[in-house]
Amino acid sequence: MSNFIKNANWRYATKKFDATKKVSEEDLNTLKEAVRLSASSYGLQPYKVIFVENPEVRAQLQPVAWGQSQITEASHLLVFANITDFGDAQIDAHINNIAVTRGLPADALQGYGDFMKSKILSLPVENRNVWTSKQTYIALTNLLNAAAELGIDVTPMEGFEADKFNEILGLEALGLNASLVATIGYRHAEDATQNYAKVRKSNEELFINL
């Protein structure tokens, strides 16, 4: 736990990346696994994570991400995209995955599948989309913590035009919506932000004991 707290103090939202430094394939695979193992409601993982590698596409995205330099300078750009109109097909696929992974007959899981459908499909589409979008934040947290363990910087971003990202990346046709953006790489020596003291609420202000 001492390393976790140390890493949490070390990380910050990097403002300027060193464009000459790239995250290794080995570390990238570790980060992918950390995201894959993230907790999610019912274990459904109602999202996709898109690695935007094409520099021309990243250049198109930068203006609709408030012109932030991290979009093009970081080693990798990740877009967390929630599944829109999440429904029967996704739940059935999850039930099948459970059955295959655990060696269970699908029929034995029908009750669980029906339970999930009763809770999720009763929500209006707009509410379901908000719910799936919230799930991406959990996955992002795993990315932040795993990256800090590896000494890799991450900048989580909400400062972008989701509709423009959807358009440029063709996400609507895939039933997806850009929910969160994260850039990963290594901080530039000239990024003065890395030397700022971390500002957080005190325990007394943040926590309530009842």
Structural write-up:
- With 210 residues, the protein is α+β, with helices and mostly antiparallel strands.
- The chain has a domain at 15-85 and 125-192: NADH Oxidase.
- The protein has nine helices and four strands.
- Strands 1-2-4-3 form a four-stranded antiparallel β-sheet, with helices on both faces.
- The longest helix is centred in the middle third of the chain and has 26 residues, at 125-150.
- The chain is globular.
- The relative contact order is 0.23.
- Residues 10-186 form the Nitroreductase domain.
- Keywords: Flavoprotein, FMN, NADP, Oxidoreductase.
Quick structural gist:
With 210 residues, the protein is α+β, with helices and mostly antiparallel strands.
Keywords:
210 residues, alpha+beta, NADH Oxidase, 4-stranded antiparallel sheet, 9 helices, 4 strands, flavoprotein, NADP, oxidoreductase, FMN, Nitroreductase-like
